[in-house]
Amino acid sequence: MPDLLLHIPTRILFGPDIVNRIGQTVAGYGTRALLVTDSAHQQAKLVERIEELLARKSIHTILFDHVGPGGANAALDELISLVRVSQARVVIGLGGMKALSAARCAAAAAPSDLSIYRVLAGEIPEKPAIPYVEVPISFRNHMMLRDEFVLTDSENGHARVIRGPEGLVKAVFLDPNLATAASAKYAAATMMDMLLACVEGYVSVKSTFLSDTLFLRAIDTLKESIDELSRDPGETASRLRAGEAGLMCAIGLSMSSQGPGGALTYAINGLHNVPKSWVAATLLPHILDHFCSVKPAKIARVARALGEDVPGLHEGEDAQQASTVARRIIARLGLPGRLRDFDLSLEDIAEIAEVAASFEMVNLSPVALSESDLYEMAKQAF
Question: Which residue among 142, 155, 229, 304 has its CA within the 20 to 30 Å range from the CA of 28?
Fold first, then answer.
C-alpha cells in the first residue's frame, strides 16, 4: 500500500443553497472578480444570482461567457488576457467542466504571462495563481481538489491534463441544488461518470485505505441515487445524495487517480465533442470487465456496493457480476451502450487510443497499458 499523504488546503463548502455564502468568501480576496461561465443564455438566472450576491459585498464583477463546447484556443487566450488587463483579484469558475477548466487555466496562467499556446505546450506557471473559487453546476468535477485541469487544443482536438501552481483552488461551493435543473437522463449519465471515476480510483496503484473507504461509500450512495432516479425521474432527493457522492469521489481522487477509462473519455470528448458523462457510462462495464481479472477482490466489493449478492470476495467469477449489473443499469436508464452510438467510426478508435495513451493516469492503472491495449479496450466498447 502506498504512503498516505493527505493535504487538502481547499476550503470546501457543501450543502443546499450554500452558494448564497459566496460573497463572504470572495470578499476575502478583493473587490474585483472575473466570473467565467458557459454561454450566459443557458444559465442567465444563475449568473445574475451570483453577480447579485457579490454586489452585496461591494465586489465588482466582470463576466466572461465565451466558453463554448469546443473551448477554442483563441477564446481561452482572450480570457487569460482579460484577467491581466482587468486586474482581477479573484477568478470564479461557474458551470460545467469546460468552463471550470478554462477559469482554472486563466487563474494559473495570467500572473506568469503565459499564453494558452504556451500552456498547451507544457509550460508550467512559475508564479502563484490568482485566487480561484469554483462553483460546479453538476454533481462532480474529478479535478475539484487537485491543482490540475483538462484542456483541449482546438487545433487538433487533443486533450491533456495541465498541472497548475500549488494551491490553485482556494474554495469550492458544491451546491447540490444547482444540479436539480438538469434532465433526468443527463443526471443519470453524470452519476455513471462518477461511478467510473470511483471504480478507477479504487483500483489505482495510488489508492489508500482512506480513499478506498470513500470510493466504496460513494458507489453505494450512487447506486441508491440511480435507483431512485429511475423510479421517479422528477424527484430531487437522489440528486442531492449524488452531490454527496461527488464530494466523496473528489476527496478520494485527491489521493488516488482515474485510469484508462478516464483517459479515453477525455480523449473522445476532445476529439469528437461527445459529452464526457455519456462516454463514461458506455465505458463503465468494459472497464469493470478489464479490472475483474486484475483486481478480483476489489471488483467483487464494487459488485456488492452495486447491490449484487456476492458470496465470496476472492474468486474471479464473483467480480464478473459487477459489469453485469452495470449493463443492467445502463439499459434501465436508456443510456447508450456502444461507442458507435455517438457516430464514431472504427477508424476513429486509433487516434482516440493515441491521445488517451498520453495521459499519466493510464500509468496509474494496476497493470501497465500501452496504446495498443487502449485501442483494444475502446474497440471492445465500439
Answer: 142
